[in-house]
Please model this.
Amino acid sequence: MPDNFVLMIATTQLGDGDERLGATLMRSFLKTQAKAPRLPDTIVLLNEGVKLVVEDSVVKEDFSALVERGVELLVCGTCLDFYELRDDIRVGTISNMFDIVTALNTADRFVRI
Model:
């Protein structure tokens, strides 16, 4: 039986350095992840990562594809409120810290990007 794999995304870009390159890399990562044979069981979006699932995000469709393939998408409600984006979320479940901690604590594998 496969392990419980949780991916946490806390930023809008992949890696450090140039912001445009980081945004391009994040988009490529998510498009590729959505087509991967082994998906995360859960993706947690925290801090600026919540901006990836709002109306004007260029990657919200990639997250929709992941959800359609069975990935649970937990979006930090506190973070959405901080950035005043709660009404703009287009994919995922608005979550709380209890659910996020539970997902992380029950993961067999955890990756943060």
Observations:
- The chain has one domain: 5-112.
- Strands lie at 5-9, 42-45, 72-76, 93-95, 109-112.
- The two ends are 25 Å apart (CA to CA).
